[in-house]
């Protein structure tokens, strides 16, 4: 009977842990006027468990305002084609630093709260390398495009953010030298010295050079002796 009671309790604990969100504090700035606001958002990130090299993955982002700390539109309102651009930071995996997602919001009247999407936003990215790292909530922006931002919100409490584990499986990129690099590279055999002969003349090469030098010297000596005999005969 105790086992039957404990199993549902464990299930409830796991479910609540998966649904728990963290409060991320943002410093938001209206680019047109320079107006700033402090905003708090409860952000829940869902990290994939089957991420693979070369395949697009999605990190789920869901945010809700902390009561009383909503972002409000400027006095001029916000354009009709307003979007939310949410970001997640990624660390620990080579050449993988972030994921990005977008969701439509629509026009906002002056001084009204800027709503957040009711559904989960998929932040997408693709890794070129395998490895294990961590994911954390990053900035959020509002505008008609990722480059045309009306409001920018940067994380204030970076040190307090939760780091979620991320594992990517598969085979990463490999780089090898080009044929031209291989052909032009000087090779020096193990134990050989730099002889100035392209790096290929090892100990055997030095012996041949020494023998050649002796032959040249012997030939020169023979010529000198022969010349002396001729002079003596005269």
UniProtKB/TrEMBL annotation:
Residues 166-204 are annotated as: Disordered. Residues 169-193 have a biased composition (Low complexity). Residues 1-21 form the signal peptide. This is Peptidase. Keywords: Signal. The lineage of its organism: Bacteria, Bacillati, Actinomycetota, Actinomycetes, Streptosporangiales.
């Amino acid at each position: 009977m105790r086992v039957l009671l404990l199993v549902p309790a464990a299930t409830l604990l796991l479910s609540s842990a998966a649904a728990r969100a963290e409060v991320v504090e943002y410093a938001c700035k209206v680019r047109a006027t320079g107006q700033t606001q402090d905003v708090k958002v409860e952000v829940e990130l869902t990290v994939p468990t089957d991420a693979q090299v070369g395949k697009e993955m999605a990190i789920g982002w869901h945010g809700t305002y902390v009561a009383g700390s909503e972002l409000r539109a400027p006095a001029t309102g916000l354009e009709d084609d307003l979007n939310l651009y949410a970001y997640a930071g990624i660390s620990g995996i080579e050449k993988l630093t972030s994921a990005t997602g977008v969701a439509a919001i629509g026009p906002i009247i002056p001084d009204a709260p800027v709503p957040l999407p009711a559904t989960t936003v998929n932040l997408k990215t693709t890794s070129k390398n395998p490895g294990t790292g961590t994911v954390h909530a990053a900035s959020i922006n509002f505008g008609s495009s990722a480059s045309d931002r009306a409001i920018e919100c940067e994380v204030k409490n970076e040190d307090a953010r939760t780091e979620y584990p991320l594992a990517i499986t598969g085979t990463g990129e490999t780089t090898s030298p080009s044929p031209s690099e291989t052909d032009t590279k000087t090779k020096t055999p193990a134990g050989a010295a730099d002889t100035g002969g392209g790096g290929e003349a090892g100990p055997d090469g030095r012996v041949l050079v020494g023998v050649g030098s002796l032959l040249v010297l012997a030939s020169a000596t023979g010529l000198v002796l022969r010349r002396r005999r001729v002079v003596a005969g005269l």
